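User: As part of a screening pipeline, I want to sanity-check one entry by hand. Below is the sequence and the SMILES for nicotinamide-adenine-dinucleotide. Please return the complex as C-alpha cells so I can compare it with the automated output.
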Amino acid sequence: MTKPLNIGLVGYGFMGRTHSNAYKRVNDFFEREYRPVLKAVCGRDAEKAEAFAAQWQYESVETDWQKLIARQDIDAIDICTPNNTHAEIAIAAAEAGKMVLCEKPLSMDPEEGERMVAAVEQAKVPNTVWYNYRRVPAVTLAKQLVQEGRLGRIFHYRSQFLQDWTIDADLPQGGAALWRLDVGAAGSGVTGDLLAHCIDTAIWLNGSIRDVTAMTETFVKERMHNLTGKVEKVGIDDACAFLCHFENGSLGLFESTRYARGHKALYTFEINGEHGSLRWDLHDLHRLEYFDHRDESIIRGWHDVHVTDGDMPYMDKWWVPGLQIGYEHTFVHQVADFLEDLAAGRATSPTFAEALETQKVCQAVLSSAETASWMSV
Ligand SMILES: NC(=O)c1ccc[n+]([C@@H]2O[C@H](COP(=O)([O-])OP(=O)(O)OC[C@H]3O[C@@H](n4cnc5c(N)ncnc54)[C@H](O)[C@@H]3O)[C@@H](O)[C@H]2O)c1
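Assistant: Here is the complex for your manual check:
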C-alpha cells in the first residue's frame, strides 16, 4: 500500500501541465512508498481552473493560494506561477508546514531567495526547485562520467540557450503568456529564464562559479504593456553573454538570446577536459556525445551515445534499449527522486539552498553587465 502525498498545485499553465503529468505517471513506472494525489489546483480564474481540474482530474479547485495553503488536507504546495509570486507563496507554505516544490528561477533576486531558504530551513520542510534538465538521462549520465574522472582536469565549460520568439517589435509585454517580457513579473529576461538552467546544470556538473563578466542587450526598447494598455520601457534583457571562472580553475562561456532566428529551445553544453570532452543538445536530448583521447588512435573520434540502455540513468524504468523518452520524463524523474528522498528522509537536489547559488550567479551577471566590470559571485 502506498502512502498518499496530497498535492496543491498553484498555476495551471505550461508547468502546471508538465508537473500534473509527472504526478499522474510517476507510480506507474517507479515503485515508491508515496503516491501523489491531485488534491487541488489553484488559479485566479475559477472557470479556467475548473476546466483544468476536470481535464487533469484534480479533486478540487481554489482561486486563492492562501486558502489552498490553509487546507489541512494538502501536504505539498507546488508553485507553477510567474517568478514574482514564488517567494510569497513559498514562504507562506513553509510557515504552514507544507513541503514546497517551486519552479525556477527560485526568486526575483538573491535577497528574496535568502528569505525563502530561511523559511524552508526553519520549518524543516522538504523542498526542491524544478531545474528539470539535470534529470534528462543523457545529462545525468554526463554527471556520472565527470564524477568518475573520465574527462580529467576540466579546462572549459560552454553553454548556450537560444530562442527566437520575441523578435517581433509589435509583441506586447505583460499579462498571461507574456509575463516573461515584463521585468516586474519575471525579474530579468533571458538571464533568469534561460541562463538559470544553463548555470544550474553547469554548477552541478563543474562546481561553483567564482566570478563573471557579462553583457546584456535589450533590442526592442519599448513595448505595449498588456496590463496598463500603454507603451512602456522594456526592462528585461533580450540577450546575455558572459564569461566566468569556475572554482576548479576552468573557464566558462555562456550565451542566451530570444533573437536567434531558427532556434526554438537550443540548449547545449560542452565540457572539455584533459582526457576528453562531452557535448549535449536539448534538440537531441537522448544523445550524449563523448570523446576520449585515450582511445586507440586509429578509431579515436566522437562517440554518439544513444542513452536508452537499462544501465543508463533512469532508463531501466522505461521501455527497451533503443527506444527513447522525452522532455516530460524529466519532470517524472524529479518527482520520482523527490518521493524516494522523502521516504528516506533525504533532501532532493536542487534544494532551495542550492538553487540560491544559481540566483547569485544570475545577479552577478546582471550587475556585471550594468557596471561593465567583473563581479564576484
Ligand atoms: N523548469 C522549466 O523548464 C520551466 C519551463 C517553463 C517555465 N518555468 C517556470 O515556471 C513558472 C511558470 O511558468 P509557465 O511557463 O508555466 O507560465 P504560464 O504563463 O504558462 O502559467 C502561469 C500560471 O500561473 C497563474 N498565475 C499567475 N499569477 C497567479 C497568482 N497570483 N495566483 C495563482 N495563479 C497565478 C496563471 O494564471 C497561469 O496559470 C515560472 O516561474 C517559469 O520560470 C520553468
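Points to compare against the pipeline: The chain has two domains: 3-132, 133-376. The longest helix spans residues 352-371.
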